[in-house]
Design brief:
The protein is of the alpha/beta class. About 35% of the residues lie in helices and about 25% in strands.
């Protein structure tokens, strides 16, 4: 399936994924997918299991390297058909912070140290500089009373908010979220969605793979529906959710919205 390029307003996109193809053996997960994301835009990506959503997101920061296609985030571009250096890879990844389903916090380190560690190792910040930035971000996600706690003493929602603070601490230009509330109880997940909404309102460029249809409708600027390794439908979230054009989109939304 070939996806149509996604433009949005005129101008250079913040993220440009062009003709992305990814296969595992004979299983083609992404088939010539193109998506452009503009500065400050919030893109929600939904679709059935196996549609290629998470793989596509991971291709954005090359945690999954496409078999072909080009990836650009900010000023950093990699043509996957050509040889690229570790430095190019590192520079691109640094521009795109990522939050996963699992929190991946170090259990033996305090919340403050979890957020500060990569700043010191990757950005060469001093401990004082890193800790100051960490305190700002931990406060921003509403957990200023947890600096000295260990992850095991936090709820799942609190741990995910710390994971968001840790990603923000690297000063990314784009934030990628891969089903960030899927492992959380709905009530706890609301805490995380509130932080994500604040980020969106602050102007952060975001790509969010999600099953949270209401979040996509309320916060997203554009809704992307993926199926069978490509983009099936896209547009204004409310329009796509209430009046989908494709039968496959209607089938999927009917199952998700009314369950």
């Amino acid at each position: 399936m070939t996806a149509h390029p996604s433009g949005g307003p005129a101008g250079t996109p913040k993220v440009a994924l062009d003709n992305i193809r990814k296969a595992y053996g004979d299983n083609v997960v992404l088939d010539d997918v193109t998506l452009h994301v503009n500065q400050g835009e919030v893109i929600s990506i939904i679709g059935p299991s196996g549609a290629g959503k998470s793989t596509f997101l991971r291709c954005t920061n090359l945690l999954e390297v496409p078999d072909s296609g080009t990836v650009r985030v900010g000023d950093h571009m990699i043509d996957t058909a050509k040889k690229h250096s570790d430095k190019q890879l590192e520079e691109l990844r640094r521009t795109a912070g990522m939050v996963f389903q699992s929190f991946n916090l170090f259990p033996h380190m305090t919340v403050l140290d979890n957020v500060s560690l990569a700043q010191r190792r990757v950005l060469d910040r001093s401990r004082a500089e890193a800790d100051e930035r960490s305190r700002e971000l931990i406060t921003r996600v509403g957990l200023e009373d947890k600096f000295d706690e260990y992850p095991g003493r936090l709820s799942g929602g609190q741990q995910q908010r710390i994971a968001i603070a840790r990603a923000l601490a690297m000063d990314p230009e784009v934030m990628l979220f891969d089903e960030p509330t899927s492992a959380l109880d709905p009530e706890v997940g609301l805490e995380v969605l509130a932080v994500m909404q604040e980020l969106a309102e602050s102007g952060m460029t975001m790509m969010v793979v999600t099953h949270e249809i209401e979040f996509a409708r309320k916060v997203g600027d554009r809704l992307i529906v993926m199926a069978d390794g490509g983009i099936l439908e896209e547009g204004d979230p409310t329009e796509v959710i209430t009046d989908p054009k494709e039968p496959r989109t209607r089938q999927f939304l009917s199952a998700v919205v009314h369950r």
